[in-house]
Amino acid sequence: MAGRIREDDIALVRERARIDEVVASYVTLRNAGGGSEKGLCPFHDEKSPSFHVTPARQVFYCFGCNEGGDVISFLQKIEGLGFTDAVERLAEKYGVQLRYAEGGPAVPRRDTNLRPRMIEAHKVAAAYYVDQLDSADAVTGRQFLSERGFDKEAAERFGIGFAPRDGDALFKHLRQKGFKDEELVTGGLVAEGGRGHYDRFRGRLLWPIRDASGDVIGFGARRLFDDDRIDAKYLNTPETPIYKKSHVLYGIDLARRDIARASQAVVVEGYTDVMACHLSGVMTAVATCGTSFGEDHGRVLRRLLHDHEEFRGEVIFTFDGDEAGQRGALKAFGGDQQFVGQTYVAIEPGGLDPCDLRLKSGDAAVRELVARRIPLYRFVLANVVSRYDLDRADGRIDALREAAKLVSSIRDRSKVDAFARELSGMVGVDVEEARTEVRRATGRSRADPRRATAQVSTRPGEVEPTETRPAAPPLPDLRDPRFMYERETLKFLLQQPHAVGTLADDLDGTDFTHPTYSSVWQLVTQLGGPEGAPASEVWLPKLRNLTTEPAVTQALNVLATERAFSKRELDATYFREIACRLQELTAKRRIYEIKSKLQRTNPVEESAEYNRMFGELIALEAHARNLRERAIGEDG
Question: Which of 111, 238, 240, 566 ranks highest by number of CB atoms within 10 Å?
Answer without folding.
Answer: 240
